[in-house]
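Chapter review: from sequence to fold.
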Amino acid sequence: MRSKLVMGLVLAVMVGLVATPALADKLLCVSKKALKGEMSVSQCLAKGERFAIVDDSGIVFILTPEEVELTKAFNPKVFETRAFGIQYQKLAPEVAPMAVPKGTN
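The token string follows.
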């Protein structure tokens, strides 16, 4: 039962990321609030930092390790960006959209 709940949550986050590219979603570090782009998101994750996606309404989605791995599979460009903490959310870049293969439009 718990695995279905986790998969439902992962699916909801992924649908939110894919279905609303016009929103200014940002990936912010929640465990190191004063982070100001000194390292990449991948480097922070390797050090055990935790991240969340914050949409333009201020709704926060904390990423679990499973969600991070799935996001890496679908959109690895997200983890190449500079990492920012909640304190510097205005400086943080928007979440990069998924790459769409040519000819699928």
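Two observations follow directly from the output. The beta strands are 26-29, 36-40, 51-54, 60-62, 82-85. The chain has one domain: 2-17+24-88.
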